[in-house]
Amino acid sequence: MIFTETTLPGVFAVDLERREDARGFFARSWCAEEFAAKGLSAQLVQCNISYNIKKGTLRGMHYQNTPHAEAKLVRCTKGRIFDVCVDLRRDSPAYLKWTAVELTQENRSMIYIPAGVAHGFQSLTDDAEVFYQMSEYFHSECSRGVRWNDPLFGIVWPLASPILSEKDAAYPDYQA
Length: 176
Fold this sequence. Notes:
The protein is mainly beta. It has helices spanning 32-37, 166-170; strands at 2-5, 12-15, 19-21, 24-26, 46-52, 58-64, 72-78, 80-87, 98-104, 110-113, 117-123, 128-134, 143-145.
């Protein structure tokens, strides 16, 4: 795997290191030793799938608070998404900054999101499917979110008029 740190400390784009031949390719998409060697959480306890019927669907910005803060490894297995991370770690030099990557079924890239970083995405195609690997079990009492278009962050989403759940639309602005 090829790890490239984004502008947010600890947030990594993870690309496959392909071994190709006439049949196609083989690539490792997870290795606890390689993640741990980069100082990333190598504990994965839960996997989730998000299926998004319509282009423009926006899910986010979500995180899980302590004592059950979670890291995520996210990959788009069908279609394309614009994947966004916002640094909510008060001790981070990138506090309140955001970064984004495009994850697609073609590039097979992933993004590693450490605990303390909010996450969301917007589907760029109909029928987009997203696969999450989580370092912590879901605890509803620790589930949190911030508004997808909070002016404090200034996220530039690619598609206007997103499709949102009532819950995501109702998240408040972040209180810095």
